[in-house]
Amino acid sequence: MKRIILGIVCSLLALVSCKTQDKTAFSNEALQATLFDGQGKEVTIQEVLDQTKGQTTFIDLWAAWCGDCIKGMPKVQALQTKYGDQIGYAFLSLDRNENQWKAAIEKYGLKGNHFWFKGLKDWKKHAFTSDIDLDWIPRYMVVGKDGSIKLFRAIHADDPKLIEAIDLDLGK
Questions:
Q1: 48 alpha-carbon distance from chain centroid
Q2: DSSP state of 23
Q3: Start-to-end CA span in the chain (Å)
Q4: For residues 70 and 62, is the Cβ–Cβ distance under 8 A?
Q5: Element spanning 140, H or E
Q6: d(CA 106, CA 88)
Q7: Which residues contact 81 (CB under 8 A, 6 or more apart)?
Q8: Distance of alpha carbon 128 from alpha carbon 44, whole angstroms
């Protein structure tokens, strides 16, 4: 009986660990999911990534209403100071209010490409956020020069794994 229970527990752990493994590529459905740019134009995630194609890209999923996101802004700014234009930046906002989103970009001096999940009420119902298993913001990712995901999940902009992923992709 103990062996059966142990077998079931091991099977469940294996199943859960498979689900939470880091991904190295976005699904086609996620790449075709849409956001809006600062001018209100609808763009796909693929088009977002194409803007920094061939560059190491830092992705920041955030919102102006998110306390942890705001607390992390000095770390994002330090990252931008450290790497400057050596890497590309894509800021994907989960804000509910366009004016608050745009004001926060200005307030925190976020340099890069900015996009908005306009009208998104449930993270689980968007193909991109679902594909990356978004469960918390801020959420940072690194996409390599080759377009593959080099870092799937970080919640601190100074996470050593995030810095390592950027440096490795830059060849440092």
A1: 12
A2: P
A3: 53
A4: no
A5: strand 139-143
A6: 18
A7: none
A8: 10
pLDDT in tens, 137-167: 999 999 999 999 999 999 999 999 999 999 9
Which tokens in the block code for residue 6? 């142990």
pLDDT at 121: 82
pLDDT tens sequence across 83-134: 999 999 999 999 999 999 999 999 999 999 999 999 888 877 899 999 999 9
| Backbone phi and psi for residue 98, each to the nearest 5 degrees, phi listed first | -60, -40
Note whether 87 and 170 are within 8 A (CB): yes
CB atoms within 10 A of CB 52: 19
Position 10: which residue type? C
Which token pair is 76?
Answer: 């994002």
**Stated pTM of the model:** 0.86
Asked whether the predicted pLDDT for residue 11 surpasses 70, the reply is no
Determine the Cα angle at 46 with ends 43 and 51, to 5°: 80
